[in-house]
Amino acid sequence: MINRELIRIKIVQLIYAYYQNGNKNIDTAEKELFFSLSKSYDMYNYLLGLMVSVTKEARKHLEIAQAKARREGTAEPSARFALNRFAMQLEDNTMLNDFMSTQKKTWNDEPEFIKKLYNMIVSSEIYREYMENPDDSYATDRELWRRIYRALIQDNEDLDAIFEEQSLYWNDDKEVVDSFVLKTIKRFDEKSGSKQELLPEYDNEEDKDYARRLFRASILNANEYQRIMSTSSQNWDFSRLAYMDIIIMQIAIAEMLTFPSIPISVTINEFVDIAKVYSTPRSGGYINGMLDAIARRLINEGKMLKQMPKRGLDEEEA
User: Fold this and answer.
1) Are 288 and 268 spatial neighbours (Cβ–Cβ below 8 Å)?
2) pTM of the full structure
3) Cα dist from 49 to 75, 105, 166, 223, whole Å
4) DSSP string covering 109-155, please?
């Protein structure tokens, strides 16, 4: 689950903090990086568990409504949402239950939020369409939760407040983690039952090694990378550059020079996207131009054995 997009974001955050806090112990900082990444995986599991908790809340309401219907001799309410097949499969999931069994804090600690979210769901158009849909299938049950997640969980201020209170790391991670939860919903197969595999913490050991090498190279070679930035900033005022921009470019240069298999265009695009979120409104364009110039300079000096497309005539004149 922890992919290179998330790793890059975490490294930017942790290296910025590394310099700002004045604690220059790289081993301690590296441990903090991996702890922060593990918290992202915790968040992924908690968000899956949220759907289970809402389903349990639905069953409580169903039991009350059924008892009332029996007393009054009226038709019993539909159990369709409370017994949603996708949600019940998730509730039985071995990997999720193994994770939740190790956690001190669960959604049982947030009863008011669970009730509020349940009421939002049953009041929504998504719920109404689901309850009226004649296609009573597992696929329909799974699609309901995909829609609920996108509409009512992905951007939920109350949920953001809970995560901010629980962990310093989580709110910055949520957008990326949301994409993995949605991917997991889509991957669920009724035939897999409780053995349905969730996303692993790391897809492979290479990504963990990538995180360690990029983090260390960015810090240990910082002076060299900043010298490269300074000598390549002929068309920009390097002294007025935002500090976050310097950090982002420092890490981008580390990736260019440390990982020969990663194309330059991928590195530039990824760190420009990070700058748009974590730095100033003008940072994306500036960093794009600077990294392009730096990469070409490193190639021309024989310090980097990668290729870039040739500039057009207009670009060379500019």
Assistant:
1) yes
2) 0.88
3) 32, 12, 16, 45
4) G-HHHHHHHHHHHHTSHHHHHHHH-S--SHHHHHHHHHHHIIIIITT
Phi and psi at 215, nearest 5°, equal -60, -50
Q: Is the pLDDT of residue 274 over 90?
A: yes
Q: What is the pLDDT of residues 102-159, one digit of tens each?
A: 998 899 999 999 999 999 999 999 999 999 999 999 999 999 999 999 999 999 999 9
Q: What secondary structure letter does DSSP report for 167?
A: -
| Cβ(27)–Cβ(4) below 8 Å | no
Tokens of 160: 């953001």
CB-based contact 216:14 (threshold 8 Å): no
What pLDDT digit, counting tens, does each position of 46-101 carry?
Answer: 999 999 999 999 999 999 999 999 999 999 999 999 999 999 999 999 999 999 99
Give the count of alpha carbons within 13 A of 310, CB side only.
2
Please state, in angstroms and rounded to a whole number, the distance separating the CA atoms of residues 164 and 140.
Answer: 33
Please list the helix, strand and coil fractions of the chain in percent, rounded to the nearest 5, in that order: 75, 0, 25
What CA–CA distance (Å, rounded) separates 127 from 118? 11
CA 241, 247, 249, 253 torsion-angle sign = positive
Cβ partners under 8 Å of residue 100, min gap 6: 45, 49, 106
